[in-house]
Amino acid sequence: MSYRLKISKKNRAAVHKRAKGYCEYCACPSDHSPSPFCIDHILPIILGGLSVLENLALACFGCNRAKYMLTQFADPISNVIVPIYNPRTDKWAEHFYWSDDYLQMVGLTATGRATINALQLNRASVINLRRALMANNLHPPEHIP
To answer: Does 53 fall in a domain?
Structure first.
């Protein structure tokens, strides 16, 4: 087994616990997802990323699929290529905030805006889930401002 590929059961459990069961990109809860969540390599294995806690994030299927091997993307305002949001080193509130109705993530920075576009963080299915969660007082997540 390769240190680069294999994610230990201990690390999988630690990733889930650290994320409190939420996708670390779109902030959707795993217990309301029709698909199992993935362990994302923030720096993809193909680009040299390792299967260590500092490089792992909990991600819903949609965010994991959209991110694939992205580490940077164009800011839609400046068109400059910037790093996408890294849940291990970046603070959510420095890059994002919720729209007034709490249904959409809004980018505060080039990284925030690029990440929203790259990972499609406001895709229709996510907005529908946020709407349903709000109706049950389950959104926005308490641990995310």
So the answer is: yes
